[in-house]
Amino acid sequence: MGIKVIDCCGLSCPEPVLRVRGALQDPSLEEVQVKVSAAVARDNVSRAAKSLGWQVGVEEADDCFLLTLSRKAK
Amino acid sequence: MREKTAVIVSGIVIGVITLLLVVWGNPANMGFCIACFVRDIAGGLGLHRAAPVQYLRPEIMGLILGAFVTALFFREFRSTGGANVTLRFMLGMFMMMGALVFLGCPWRMLLRLAGGDLNALVALPGYIFGIWVGTLFLQQGYSLGQAKEQSSLNGLIAPLLAFALLVLLITRPSLLFFSEQGPGSMRAPIFVALLAGLVVGVLAQRTRFCTMGAFRDIILFRDFHLFSGIIALFVVVLVGNLLLGSFKLGFTGQPVAHTEWLWNFLGMGIVGFAAVLAGGCPLRQLILSGEGNGDAMATVLGLTAGAAVMHNFAWAASPAGVSGGTKVMVVVVWILLLAVGWFVARQARENEAKVQQGESLKGQTSAVEVSS
């Protein structure tokens, strides 16, 4: 049950997606938490995660978005 | 699914607006062209003195202000920046330099193609090739780093400048230069053009429309989201040109174009490559600058400077073709872009390795703490 935290604040596209996709393809991870600062990155990471079959939860903090990506229960 | 529909509908609307702008007075296959219009603005301000291409194109101001207002409304306006600003300025310059070898930004490449200009069919693979080369560096860890929060004023400069340009356009003081003939003299009425820019600015801000991202996301992720938008745009303009009788298939006699295929390929390649390294095509940079992104604004200023360089040094291509000096410039810029990609990627990898080393050390200490 691995959890990984990735901070992508301030990174321009497509770097957040590149970094997150790497983690999503790691079979040992059950949950990936991603911090992004831009709405674009939030949308792009969410779309990428959903297309790889992950569930996406979004929380809005003061200056960033916290995305919780988790594997869908089989 | 809703997102996808939005992108496609935006592509259609942008296509229709593009067609109408030509009907209303813009040059053929140039309803919209970021490179051409920013170049015209550089000329209008006297930054270059190429008489046929000088005008303060209100479409550009509309794009920035449209994106600005939309970003405010959706609470997405954020003043950010500080991630390799000077480098981004240079990448903006290179983008413009490549675009003025081909004679158009990626957007106009699609419009030229939809008008039957087969030179654009040579430039398109060049563009995709440039993007592919750029993605190799992305996969090697290329990163311009993290932008930080900046003073609100920094983010407001793009919309304020756009507003100032509009005031200049309307008051038309004698210090400006406006073309009396050539492409710069062909223009849609000010308020129509401004409104067109505003609408496209709103749509592009919402959908994150990007001609480079469309191909990049396919290459990197097999993601066709943005691509569906530009295909919709292309099809609408193609059908529109066929209906209006402005579709003319061939290489020669095309409006504001030349037939030197190698330089069309390599010129557009520069645009694709530099756009990947800068994180967006010229259109996207304008939209981001309207959202308060100071780094994108640096790229936009780079585009403007690039236009001045190209015309002041007589490097810009013309319907007559590409000069010897331009060919040398294209090769040099390709080499510089490769150097930028290699250097930045290598340093980013080293920094990443240091961070990871630091984290694993931290991990060890905390494990020790737990056991004690």
Entry summary:
Chain A is an alpha+beta fold and 74 residues long.
Question: Could you describe the 3D structure shown?
Answer:
The complex is a heterodimer of chains A (74) and B (372). Chain A is α+β, with helices and mostly antiparallel strands and 74 residues long. Chain A is 31% helix and 38% strand. Chain A has one domain: Translation Initiation Factor IF3 (2-Layer Sandwich). Chain A has two helices and four strands; from the N terminus they run βαβαββ. In chain A, a hairpin with a 4-residue loop joins strand 3 (54-60) and strand 4 (65-71). The longest helix of chain A is centred in the middle third of the chain and has 13 residues, at 39-51. Chain A is globular and about 30 Å long. The two termini of chain A are 15 Å apart. Chain B has one domain (2-356). Chain B is globular, with a radius of gyration of 21 Å. The mean pLDDT of chain B is 95.
The CATH architecture of chain A: 2-Layer Sandwich
Biggest interface, which chains? Answer: A-B, 20 and 26 residues
Mean pLDDT of chain A: 88
**Biggest pleated-sheet summary of chain A:** 4 strands, mixed
Order of helices and strands of chain B: HHHEHHHEHHHHHHHH
Query: Given the helix and strand composition of chain B, which structural class is it?
Result: mainly alpha
Quaternary = heterodimer
Q: What is the element string of chain A, with H for helices and E for strands?
A: EHEHEE
For the record, give the distance between the C-alpha atoms at the N and C termini of chain B, rounded to a whole number: 53 Å
Q: With helices defined by DSSP (H or I, 4 residues minimum), what is the helix count of chain B?
A: 14
Shape of chain A: globular
Main CATH class of chain A: Alpha Beta
